Amino acid sequence: MEYCIIICNSTQHMLNADKILKENSIKTELIPAPAEYGSVCSTAIKIDAYNVDVAEKLLKINSVSVKGIYPYKIRKLDGLLEIINKGLNRDIKAVLEKVEKGIELTEDDIVLLLSADGDENLSSIYKAADEMRKAVVGDVVDIRAAIEFSNICRKNCLYCGLRRDNLTVDRYRMDVNEIVETAKELKQMGIKTVILQSGEDPWYTEDKIIEIIRKIKKETNMRITLSIGERTEEEYQHFREAGANNFLLKIETTNREIFKNIHPDDDFDYRVKCSQWLRGNGYINGNGNIIGLPGQTARDIARDILFFKEMGIHMVGIGPFVPAAGTPLETYPHGSVDMTLKTVAVTRLVLKNVFIPATTALATVDKEAQVKALMAGANTIMLISTPSKYRNRYRIYSNKNMVDLKTAYMAIVKAGRKLPPYINKEYIKEIV
C-alpha cells in the first residue's frame, strides 16, 4: 500500500488537520516529520495515498494551512550489506537486508537483533544504525541542557533514588528566579533547548509551571522541554499554550507486570493516556525505557520499540538501569551496556527519524559508552546544568556521572561527529 504525508505550516494547523480528517473517516497516523521537509511542524500526518484528493479538498475547505503533501518515502540504505562485516550471522544478515531495502521490521526481527552477540554481528548492527542516523539526521550532535529544579517526588517508584520514602535524600526546590537565571546562562552558552526536570513535586502547581515557562520564554526565547511527570490533560494543554515545546515522559517498560512491580502507585493505562494527551496537544513527544529491569526480556524491549513507533514518538531516551541507594533495588546489578547499545541501534533502525540521546546513565556505567552510543545511532547529548549547590542532591541513581559541555565535546570529537553551530565558540575555546 502506498502512503502520503501532509506537512502543515504550524502545529496548530497540523492538529486541526488531523481532527478534520479523522472526523471524515480518513485514517491518520502522526509521525515525526522527515528532516528534508524542514521544521515548520515537527509532526507529519500519514494517510493512505488513495485518500489524498479528498483530504486536500477537506483541508482547503477548512482553511488549514498546508506546506505540502508528499509521497511517503521508504527509507532505504542502498549498499548497506557491502560495508558491513561479511561473516555475520545468516539470520541477522537477512534482517539487515530488510533494512537495506526499506522493509519494516517485525517484532521477531527486532528480538533477533537484540539477542545478537559476537563482535562481527554487533559491529554490523551498530554500523547499520550509524548509516541510518547519518541518512536521516546527519552528523551534527544536538546538545541540550537540563535544569533539575526539584528532587521532591510524590511517587514511590522502586528504582528511583528520588522516591518518596527514601529518607537519605537531602531535598530541595529551586525558586522561579533561580530557574530563569540558570536558563539565561545556558542561553549565553548558545544552548537552544532547556529541559526543566524534576520529581513529581505538587508544590509546583500549574500556575507556577506556567510562570516559569513564560519567564524563560520572555528572557531567552529558548525552546522548553518539560520532564515533570504525570499531569492532567488540561495542564498539558495549558503548559503548551504558555510556550512549552517538548515533553519527556518515559514509559520505562511496556511489560505491564514489570511496570506494576516497579511503580506501586502508578497506573500503566494512565501513563499511556498521558502520552496520548501530549501528542494530541502538539508537543514534540519524548519517551523512553530502562534496560535491565528485573524480569525484562529482549521481547519486552522489542515491544517497547514498537510502542514508540505506534505512538509517533519524536525522542527516545534509552539508558541502563543504575541502582540507587536507599531504594528496594539498590543491590540489583546495573543494566547491560551492550544491551543498551543494541537497543539504541535497533531503535534507530525501526524509528529512523527520531532524536536518540547518548544518555547520562550510559556514561555513569561506562565512561566511554556515550561515544559508543553516538557510533550506534544516537544523535543527542543532554548536559547536566543544575546549579552546583543542588547538583549532587539530584540522585535518581547513585554515582551519577557529570555531563558538561567539555564531556559532550570530547564524546563528539571521539565519535567523529560535528558540534552544533549554535554553541558559543567562546565556550569551545575555553574547553580546547
Automatic annotation (TrEMBL):
GO terms for biological process: sulfur compound biosynthetic process; water-soluble vitamin biosynthetic process. Keywords: 4Fe-4S, Iron, Iron-sulfur, Metal-binding, S-adenosyl-L-methionine. It holds the Pfam family Se_S_carrier. Residues 139-359 form the Radical SAM core domain. Its cofactor is [2Fe-2S] cluster; [4Fe-4S] cluster. GO terms for molecular function: 4 iron, 4 sulfur cluster binding; metal ion binding; transferase activity. It comes from the Bacteria. InterPro entries: Aldolase_TIM (IPR013785), BATS_dom (IPR010722), Elp3/MiaA/NifB-like_rSAM (IPR006638), FeFe-hyd_HydE_rSAM (IPR024021), HydE/PylB-like (IPR034422), rSAM (IPR007197), rSAM_sf (IPR058240), Se/S_carrier-like (IPR021778). NCBIfam families: rSAM_HydE. This is Radical SAM domain protein. It comes from Thermoanaerobacterium xylanolyticum (strain ATCC 49914 / DSM 7097 / LX-11).
